[in-house]
């Protein structure tokens, strides 16, 4: 067998290799195609995965549809007026566990575009210890397999955007606010649609690395945050606007139990976001707090409902899981007690099932497991993780 410099490849092998490469490139091109779906269809698909939040679903469906319609129309012959469409980034306001991240993730799957999540709390102004804002695009490039063209049509979800608010609210910072106002200013260029030089290995740890140029003009940025305490600012604004100028019957229409539905750019500014940043995320929507009924539906109804996931986990070990319905009510009540929203449901289910998940794989005789109310209560009382949550 001849190898090395004296080795040869026959014509048939070369042709076969070319066919393999061509097929791979074709598959990749198909994978990168944006699946543009109508707003009504997007909402219908979101309904399969997310309970309630109709207003947020509607706003997100329209914003995302318009964004990708704008991208796809670039390849079509332009009209005479040649109007240039600008993108509209989105901000989602809602309590923890109401589905902000899930909403963004599901839309990215529906449209078949690269998607990444970044935590705003990790960012600092350039030159300080912490991550630069450009590292958001590093994550997007990694998800897109370093295909810049695909990444430039992706979605970036920046979570905890409320944690980079100005420390003094409306007032500009007197001292250097490197983790708050400084980060907001650093985000401006990226949100607007500039070309950003991205370090492929992430930040200043490798100063000699060659930068990758990424145009953010067609990247959709979705910002999410709990904005804890903003409801008080909304209440003050609504009350001051209503006093003496509005008919008493109209004033009674204000829903005091869910003030987030009245959120406006003015409230985000008073919370501590700078006006320049607010101007670059013009689409504002809110998520309702989840009621007891909604949490129960979250537990059992969606395609990836927690109960369905645990049923499948046990089924893979040949065990059928049977739940008594009162157990669902208990799980929901505890999630409300701990104020963790939908995220709390998994922690409570884990507490109930951990012992069973530990023992059943080693015992082939167990074919069925019945989760009763007394069994669930006993496991929850003995759970160290839930006790820690209770103390917190």
What would your notes on this structure say?
This protein is an alpha/beta fold. 47% of the residues lie in helices and 10% in strands. α14 packs across α15. The longest helix has 21 residues, at 11-31. The radius of gyration is 25 Å and the shape is globular. The N and C termini lie far apart (69 Å).
Q: Short summary of the structure?
A:
By secondary structure, the protein is α/β, with parallel strands linked by helices.
Q: Total helix count?
A: 17
The fraction of residues assigned to DSSP E strands is: 5-15%
Strand order of the largest sheet: 2-3-6-1-7
Taken in chain order, the helices and strands follow as HHHEHEHHEHEEEHHHHEHHEHHEHH
Distance from first to last alpha carbon:
69 Å
Structural category is: alpha/beta
Helix percentage range: 40-55%
What is the arithmetic mean of pLDDT? 81
What summary fits the major beta sheet? 5 strands, parallel
Please mark out the parts with pLDDT under 50 across 5 or more consecutive residues, or reply none.
none
Which overall shape is indicated by the principal axes computed on the Cα atoms?
A: globular
Task: State Rg.
Answer: 25 Å
> What is the tally of beta strands?
9
């Amino acid at each position: 067998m001849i190898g090395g410099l004296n080795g040869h490849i026959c014509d048939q092998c070369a042709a076969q290799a070319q066919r393999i490469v061509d097929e791979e490139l074709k598959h990749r091109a198909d994978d990168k195609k944006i699946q543009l779906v109508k707003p009504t269809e997007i909402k219908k698909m979101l309904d399969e995965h997310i309970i309630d939040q109709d207003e947020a679903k509607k706003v997100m469906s329209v914003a995302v549809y318009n964004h990708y319609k704008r991208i796809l129309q670039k390849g079509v012959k332009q009209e005479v007026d040649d109007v240039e469409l600008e993108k509209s980034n989105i901000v989602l306001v809602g309590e923890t566990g109401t589905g902000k991240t899930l909403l963004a993730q599901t839309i990215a799957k529906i449209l078949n575009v690269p998607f990444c999540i970044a935590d705003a709390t990790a960012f600092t102004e350039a030159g300080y210890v912490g991550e630069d804002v450009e590292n958001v695009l590093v994550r997007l490039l990694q998800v897109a397999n370093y295909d810049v063209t695909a990444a430039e049509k992706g979605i970036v979800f920046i979570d905890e955007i409320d944690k980079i608010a100005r420390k003094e609210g409306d007032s500009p910072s007197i001292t250097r606010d490197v983790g708050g106002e400084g980060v907001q200013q650093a985000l401006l260029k990226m949100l607007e649609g500039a070309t950003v030089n991205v370090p492929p290995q992430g930040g200043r740890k490798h100063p000699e690395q060659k930068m990758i140029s990424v145009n953010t003009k067609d990247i959709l940025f979705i910002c999410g945050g709990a904005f804890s305490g903003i409801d008080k600012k909304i209440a003050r604004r609504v009350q001051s606007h209503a006093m003496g100028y509005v008919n008493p019957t109209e004033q009674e229409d204000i829903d005091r139990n869910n003030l987030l539905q009245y959120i406006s750019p003015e409230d985000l500014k008073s919370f501590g976001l700078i006006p320049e940043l607010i101007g670059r995320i013009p689409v504002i929507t809110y998520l309702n707090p989840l009621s007891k009924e909604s949490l129960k539906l979250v537990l059992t109804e969606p395609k990836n409902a927690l109960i369905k996931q645990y049923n499948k986990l046990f089924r893979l070990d040949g065990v059928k899981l049977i739940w008594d319905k009162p157990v669902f009510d208990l799980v929901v009540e505890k999630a409300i007690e701990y104020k963790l929203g939908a995220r709390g449901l998994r922690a409570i289910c884990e507490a109930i099932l951990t012992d069973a998940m530990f023992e059943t794989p080693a015992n082939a005789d167990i074919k069925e497991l019945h989760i009763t109310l007394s069994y669930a209560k006993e496991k929850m009382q003995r759970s160290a993780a839930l006790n820690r949550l209770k103390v917190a």
